[in-house]
Design brief:
Elements lengths: L6 E6 L2 H11 L3 E8 L4 E7 L5 E6 L18 E4 L3 H10 L8 E2 L6 E6 L5 E6 L2
Parallel strand pairs: 1-4, 5-8
Antiparallel strand pairs: 2-3, 3-4, 6-7, 7-8
Length: 128
């Protein structure tokens, strides 16, 4: 039986930009960093304070993934924040633009979307 989500894995193309975004801006902690010589890539393991893990793979020439509204497959990743306004203020000071904040009509939680350095949609979600 599944007990919890263990990790998310994403592919980026710029190690410095991705570490700045996930580690420095979003607060993940790097717990492992491995160069995969045969694949000419990096695998970086990160954890967040709430216990979730992120595997970040860096391939300099990774192809673009086509994304269309409401297409099949992974839609976005979402991270819970304790203060959405403070988080957005910090991100804005660091050049990260966010969509307008919305309210979930079912839960009344506030949320918005930003993009990581490779354009992956990232939801920031503040529970009611």
């Amino acid at each position: 039986m599944i007990t919890k989500l263990h990790h998310l894995a994403i592919i980026g193309t710029d190690k410095t930009a991705s570490l700045y975004f996930y580690r420095d801006l979003l607060g993940f902690e790097v717990v492992g960093e491995y160069y995969q010589e045969g694949r000419e890539s990096w695998k970086i393991d990160l954890v967040m304070s709430g216990g979730g893990q992120l595997e970040l793979f860096i391939f300099k020439n990774a192809p673009f993934r086509l994304s269309y509204p409401e297409a099949r497959g992974l839609r976005h990743i979402a991270f819970e924040v304790d203060d959405l306004d403070k988080t957005l203020s910090n991100l804005s000071k660091n050049g990260i633009a966010a969509e307008p904040v919305r309210v979930d009509p079912y839960t009344q939680a506030r949320f918005t979307f930003i993009k990581d350095p490779d354009g992956l949609p990232v939801e920031l979600y503040q529970p009611e």
